[in-house]
Amino acid sequence: MMEGAGALAGRRIVVGVSGSIAAYKAVTLVRLLSERGAVVDVAMTAAATRFVGPLTFASLTHRPVLDNVFELDADQQIAHIELAEAADAIVLAPATANLLGQLAAGLVSDAVTAIACASRAPVIVAPAMDAGMWTNPATQRNVATLRDFGYLIVEPEVGTLASGLTGVGRLAEPPTILDAVERLFARAGDLEGLHVVVSAGGTREPLDPVRFIGNRSSGKMGAAIAEAARDRGASVTLIAGAMSVTPPRGVTVVDATTAAAMRESVLRAAPQADILVMAAAIADFAPARASQHKIKRSGANLQIELVPNPDIVAEVGEMPDDVRPFLIGFAAESDDLETNAAAKLRDKGLDLIVGNVVGGPFDAIGSDENKVTVFAAEGALSDWPMLPKRQVAERLWDLIADRYRHARGMAEGAETGRGRRRS
């Protein structure tokens, strides 16, 4: 990419550096951001200055470095407030376990945390620490909290750490962090004005007042998809089945824990949606009758008659074009993924289908990671490795947004003046 060109040209980006041995990589990150035309301001914690001197960053950016929360700028304004208000984005790299904890708790003790707390700009966090610190439950809780705040986490990598051990916790390489920043601006607002409906989680089909037939779906993938759509400017409705994660803030949540409730909610929401992502694991069968009383243990074998549930995705796929949303389904298969996904795409009238293999080394059920392949009518569109589900969600929206715009353009070109979208 040419210097000064692209999504970062003229963007004002604050890079916050905390006290990690990986602070030296922030020097390369700042250089890369500057080369792409960004106006870069650097803020440092006191500990960070023990690894890299402020003069290094000042020489690269030709701008003063803020390392004192009490500092005033040239106009006698509070420097960290000025930066917080002016920033188009904040990049915290490296982010130590201590910094993550302070951000999650809303604590301010230095220029970096003061800027992050005061700003309303999007925040990208690239953690770096020893493997034991990264996997510590408190750290993972803090990371989850920051995700709920809307922060974008650039996951640490596996490699040799400062301790000499090998494990996860190594700061992502500067080009990887740069890519996250560029993608943030490239896709910022690309779903603005659209109503996105996402279904997530499993369903529970009751046997009696205390028992049900269900599945192992956690709802993490659907929640990540809803959260990413929210961050890209969409108005989001999340139709939530049984989920082990808290729905993201800033979305409308509709509870639907049975297939019947899911069907009712989806069919009500679909005609008002621009895009519908059916990520929920909806039970194919339900007990023919649910007992009104708890079924008692007995010597006889219990036999349960099962009846098929309605195919909700297929019902949406059969809607008239003027009310049918752009439709994405999911296919969890234990074998022959491509054949089964292609059949579902065709038979259910889908625009795209996201396939993943269940069982084996890439079993994503309940996991924080997923390995998916996206199929369209012309075949597979992606070949992504196992990734954190939020990263999968971002890649999905890159693809979905592009295909939606193309489909919308084709429809408008074929029938000028006919618009199905409601203003």
Can you characterise this structure?
With 423 residues, the chain is of the alpha/beta class. It folds into two domains: 176 residues, Flavin prenyltransferase-like (Rossmann fold), CATH 3.40.50.1950; 210 residues, Rossmann fold. The chain is built from 13 helices and 21 strands. The chain has an eight-stranded mixed β-sheet with strand order 12-11-8-13-16-17-19-20, with helices on both faces. The N terminus and C terminus are likely disordered.
Describe the structure using short key phrases.
423 residues, Rossmann fold, 2 domains, 5-stranded parallel β-sheet, 34% helix, disordered N terminus
Summarize the structure.
With 423 residues, the chain is of the alpha/beta class. 34% of the residues lie in helices and 21% in strands. The model is unreliable at 1-5 and 416-423 (pLDDT under 50).
Task: Explain the layout of strands and helices.
Blueprint: E1 12-17, H1 23-35, E2 39-44, H2 54-61, H3 79-86, E3 89-95, H4 97-105, H5 111-118, E4 123-127, H6 131-135, H7 137-149, E5 152-153, E6 157-160, E7 166-170, H8 174-187, E8 195-200, E9 205-206, E10 212-213, H9 220-231, E11 235-240, E12 252-255, H10 259-269, E13 275-278, E14 285-287, E15 306-308, H11 312-317, E16 326-333, H12 337-347, E17 352-357, E18 369-370, E19 373-376, E20 379-380, E21 387-388, H13 389-414
Parallel strand pairs: 1-2, 1-3, 3-4, 4-5, 8-11, 8-13, 11-12, 13-16, 16-17
Antiparallel strand pairs: 6-7, 9-10, 14-15, 17-19, 18-21, 19-20
Helix pairs in contact: 1-2, 1-8, 3-5, 4-7, 9-13
